[in-house]
Amino acid sequence: IECWLNYDPTFGWLNELGYDAMEFYMPLRGPNNNGTMGTQSHSWFEKYETAGVKTLAFFLRPVILAVNYAKRLGYKHIVLVGLSGGGWTTTVAAAIDKRIDLSIPVAGSLPFAMRTQHKGDPYHDIGDYEQLQARPMYKAVNYTGMYVLAGLEGGRQQMQILHEED
After folding, report:
1. 104: which strand partners?
2. Three-state secondary structure call for residue 157
3. CB-CB contact of 87 with 74 (8 Å)
4. DSSP class of residue 128?
5. DSSP letter at 115?
6. Which of 24, 94, 139, 158 has its CA 20 to 30 A from that of 100?
7. pLDDT tens-digit map of 104-156
8. Looking at the DSSP assignment, which residues form a beta bridge with residue 158?
């Protein structure tokens, strides 16, 4: 078994404050890529999605399983925080799982109408493969809808953190 050491002190800090925390890696990143998959680009999933595989499950299922586990252990409040691709995962997971009380996506998503699509623009970023507007899920609900869903019920909130240079 290979152990992946995280040099980010955030989890130790959260533990010192008395919080329990779990950490996840994106698909094909860190321990989720054993080196045999070649590229670490999420566009790797395209051929499987075209074949009918629900590839977004690779991004969301670990979070939902972790929430299930925490609830079985008796945790009352679930807070989900994610940075970049993890921020995107936070946005989507909080929209579909009402048990997430507080979600804090950091630099994770931006409505399609607000994205810069011109390659000459220094802020050009249409997102990773799972964030592209062509994904089937965006026909059902767009980012604005997900933001609303993440805080729709009483006791649920979402705080987005965005930076103009990210």
Report:
1. 81
2. strand
3. no
4. -
5. S
6. 139
7. 998 888 887 777 666 665 555 667 777 777 788 888 999 999 999 999 999 99
8. 103
